[in-house]
């Protein structure tokens, strides 16, 4: 690749490719693991209550006296950027829990809630939380909308798996507003685990979401090479569900080509010694749009 000099001009191009598909809408079920978890701890005594952050893998409730208590709860984030809440038909939570070693006798029991929307959005997932944010997080989890009323419990110190139906649009007993409490931005769900009795270890949590739409296509890989002073060869992985590929140039939104192949040569480029190419793939299907971004790539024209 030729070396660049300060006097040489770098041309910036950006291309995106639209994958046109004609698949029928259907019900798809995806399994989504949590992407973030965050715990909150309230400790109360004669002098009042203090709040701390935590990992969220253990929730606990103790109340040895009216003036001396400790409670830990947690929230879990499940991201689903490939579809929106209005397409969701059914949600099943799969959670693996155990009675923690130092629990009191009997069962440990917890409830599942959707944290309050306002504080759930205001309290960050990353970095250290202020004292006020730690208190907000605890109360956000504690007073959220209950999505599994009866609670779940275990007397076993070995992990046990529970599958809980927390939403179904075709069955009674689920509030029509339930999904609005999860997250109004429509690209994630947040669930909180609040203890009722004892200390519970949360070993894993995932959700199975059935929604109206199409399966997410495999992410195509991209490459770009040049064998002349004015052209670049674009190559990408073929998408089986696509019938054509539309190649656009993003700086002027110009349609360059429509092709059924998974490669195309962009010609007529300025014959400078180097060009920076940035690709964006916009995959459009019947009910969904998928955006895949690739970092800029330096291509030297021959």
Automatic annotation (TrEMBL):
InterPro entries xrefs: Ig-like_fold
Q: Which domain of life is it from?
A: Bacteria
> Could you identify this protein by its name?
Uncharacterized protein
Q: From what organism does this protein derive?
A: Lacinutrix neustonica
């Amino acid at each position: 690749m030729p070396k660049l000099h300060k006097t040489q001009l770098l041309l910036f191009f950006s291309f995106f490719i639209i994958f046109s598909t004609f698949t029928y809408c259907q019900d798809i079920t995806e399994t989504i693991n949590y992407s973030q978890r965050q715990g909150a701890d309230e400790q109360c005594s004669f002098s009042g209550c203090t709040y701390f952050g935590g990992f969220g893998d253990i929730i606990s409730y103790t109340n040895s006296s009216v003036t001396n208590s400790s409670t830990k709860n947690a929230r879990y984030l499940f991201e689903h950027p490939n579809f929106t809440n209005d397409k969701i038909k059914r949600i099943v939570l799969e959670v693996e829990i155990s009675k923690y070693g130092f629990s009191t006798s009997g069962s440990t029991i917890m409830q599942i809630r959707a944290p309050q929307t306002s504080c759930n959005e205001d309290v960050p997932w990353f970095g250290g939380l202020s004292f006020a944010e730690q208190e907000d997080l605890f109360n956000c989890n504690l007073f959220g909308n209950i999505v599994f009323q009866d609670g779940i419990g275990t007397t076993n110190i070995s992990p046990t798996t529970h599958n809980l139906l927390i939403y179904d649009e075709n069955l009674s007993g689920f509030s029509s507003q339930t999904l609005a409490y999860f997250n109004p931005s429509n690209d994630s769900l947040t669930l909180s685990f609040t203890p009722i009795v004892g200390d519970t270890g949360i070993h894993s949590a995932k959700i199975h979401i059935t929604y109206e739409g199409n399966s997410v296509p495999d992410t195509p890989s991209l490459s770009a090479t040049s064998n002349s002073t004015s052209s670049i060869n674009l190559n990408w992985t073929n998408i089986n569900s696509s019938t054509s590929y539309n190649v656009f140039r993003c700086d002027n939104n110009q349609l360059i080509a429509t092709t059924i192949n998974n490669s195309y040569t962009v010609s007529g480029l300025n014959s400078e010694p180097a060009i920076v190419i940035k690709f964006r793939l916009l995959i459009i299907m019947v009910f969904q749009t998928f955006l895949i971004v690739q970092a800029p790539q330096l291509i030297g024209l021959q």
